[in-house]
């Protein structure tokens, strides 16, 4: 749609009229965390989860983990030593009993009641873990990762592969099933915005939870009328932004108000 045809007042009315879960109503969340922990907490804390996927911090492993996470509606994180203690705390808080490791990870649990599984990295293993046949989709560049994950649908069973980076293969690992979990959003998701710089794990968690994701070129809604239309009327929520490129909550809400006022004055 041409920007001249965009009506921000109409967009604001539509944004405000959406039914949304109570915990998101009248709230703006900005999640800067690059590992996905904050999105796990925001979207899965209330309902808990039996399983979690931990991905090696490589592009191919993150795409693989995202593919499984969305298909089975299971949360994921990207592993880094700096977040290990927070991850352990999150595992305890969620009531996790099963961990799937995707990639070559130095993660070993000290909890005796946790089942640690290893993904062999093969297409066959995906079918054995989920009981469904996956269709492969190649992502052409790192810049396209977030959009590819945002476009994933649980019922499609799509395996995302990085064209620029081979995926590990460790067929010595025995494949175990990762049971699917139910959709959590109840069809009442807040508006959720991301950019190509957002965390792959965070975007996958939104899709696994059941929400939709809007990919914006930049973290400043004022940069185009198309971007303003996505957030018009949401300066007080319900809105979730994934990534530090959106600033903090105050900065994002100020940008929305400023963009709205500038557009209103321009049209008056």
Topology:
Blueprint lengths: L7 H9 L11 E4 L5 H8 L6 E5 L3 H14 L3 E3 L5 H11 L3 E5 L12 E4 L4 H8 L4 E5 L5 H6 L7 E5 L28 E4 L5 H10 L4 E2 L9 H7 L7 E4 L6 H19 L1
Parallel strand pairs: 1-10, 2-3, 2-4, 4-5, 6-7, 8-9, 8-10
Account of the protein in words:
The protein has 268 residues and is α/β, with parallel strands linked by helices. It has one domain (3-267). Helices cover 34% and strands 15% of the residues.
Helix content: 25-40%
Q: How are the strands of the biggest sheet laid out side by side? A: 1-10-8-9
Radius of gyration: 19 Å
Query: Unreliable runs, pLDDT <50, ≥5 residues?
Result: none
Task: Output mean pLDDT.
Answer: 92
Identify the notable features of this structure and list them briefly.
alpha/beta; 34% helix; four-stranded parallel β-sheet; 9 helices; globular; 268 residues
């Amino acid at each position: 749609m041409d920007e001249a045809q965009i009506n921000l007042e109409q967009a604001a009315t539509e944004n405000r009229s959406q039914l949304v879960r109570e915990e998101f109503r009248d709230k703006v969340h900005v999640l800067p965390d690059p590992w996905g922990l904050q999105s796990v907490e925001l979207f899965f804390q209330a309902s808990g989860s039996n399983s979690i996927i931990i991905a090696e911090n490589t592009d191919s492993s993150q795409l693989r983990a995202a593919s499984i996470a969305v298909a089975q509606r299971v949360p994921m994180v990207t592993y880094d030593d700096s977040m290990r203690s927070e991850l352990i705390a999150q595992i305890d808080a969620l009531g996790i009993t099963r961990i799937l490791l995707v990639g070559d990870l130095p993660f070993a649990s000290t909890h005796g009641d946790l089942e640690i599984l290893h993904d062999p990295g093969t297409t066959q293993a995906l079918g054995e873990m989920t009981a469904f046949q996956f269709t492969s989709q190649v992502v052409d560049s790192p810049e396209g990762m977030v959009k590819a994950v945002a476009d994933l649908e649980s019922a499609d069973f799509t395996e995302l592969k990085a064209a620029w980076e081979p995926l590990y293969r460790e067929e010595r690992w025995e494949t175990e099933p990762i049971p699917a979990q139910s959709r959590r959003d109840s069809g009442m998701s807040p508006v959720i915005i991301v950019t190509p710089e957002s965390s792959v794990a965070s975007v996958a968690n939104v899709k696994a939870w059941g929400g939709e994701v809007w990919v914006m070129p930049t973290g400043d809604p004022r940069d185009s009328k198309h971007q303003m239309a996505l957030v018009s009327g949401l300066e007080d929520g319900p809105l979730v932004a994934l990534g530090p490129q959106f600033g903090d909550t105050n900065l994002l809400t100020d940008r929305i108000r400023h963009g709205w006022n500038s557009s209103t004055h321009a049209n008056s």
